[in-house]
Amino acid sequence: MADNHEETLFSKIIRKEIPADIVFEDDDCLCFRDIQPVAPVHVLLIPKRCIPRLADVDEADQPLLGKLMGKVPAITKLLGIEDAFRLVVNSGAGACQTVFHLHLHIIGGRSLGWPPG
Ligand code: 5GP
Questions:
Q1: Domain contains 116
Q2: Using an 8 Å Cβ cutoff, are 107 and 39 in contact?
Q3: Per-residue pLDDT of the chain (117 residues; tens, 9 = 90+)
Q4: Which of 5, 42, 101, 103 is catalytic?
Q5: What CA–CA distance (Å, rounded) separates 47 from 43?
Q6: Is residue 2 a part of any domain in this protein?
């Protein structure tokens, strides 16, 4: 997406202007429960710096993405789903991305079928 939209509702969650059930936060990322969970555990892990879509990531973003992915084991452990969980990234409207601030869906707490559909 050429349009580098910085302002989404996730920006407001980061700034605590919209309430969210935050499960983890550090200088670079925020993790909070999805408002419409698709499983007993469904959180969104986002970088605080807005990258609209996974497709927009460039080489300079790779350390941040590595950090985000590297937080997943600790967060899933915190949530008690470390033995079985799924990560989903929707990239682009055609893949049902609705908030254009890159986020990892971390989903668990029930048995997860495959293929996901
Ligand atoms: P996407 O469809 O872009 O991959 O995922 C966006 C996610 O954000 C959806 O699962 C949706 O339920 C969640 N979401 C939308 N608005 C809010 C909100 O105001 N608060 C929280 N916690 N989650 C939201």
A1: no
A2: yes
A3: 334 457 899 999 999 999 999 999 999 999 999 999 999 999 999 999 999 999 999 999 999 999 999 999 999 999 999 999 999 999 999 999 999 999 999 999 999 999 986
A4: 103
A5: 13
A6: no
Count of structural domains, the chain:
1
Q: Is residue 86 part of a domain?
A: yes
> Which among 25, 35, 38 is the best mutation to test ligand 1's pocket, defined by most ligand atoms within 8 Å of the CB?
35
Q: What is the CATH number of the domain that holds 79?
A: 3.30.428.10
**Domain, as residue range, for 96:** 9-108
The answer to whether the beta carbons of residues 10 and 46 sit under 8 Å apart is yes
Pocket of ligand 1 from Cβ distances under 6 Å:
9, 18, 20, 32-36, 44, 90, 96-99
What does the block give as tokens for 31? 């993790």
- For ligand 1, atom 15, the nearest C-alpha belongs to 35
Task: Please indicate, yes or no, if residue 115 is contained in any of the structural domains.
Answer: no
> What pTM does this model have?
0.95
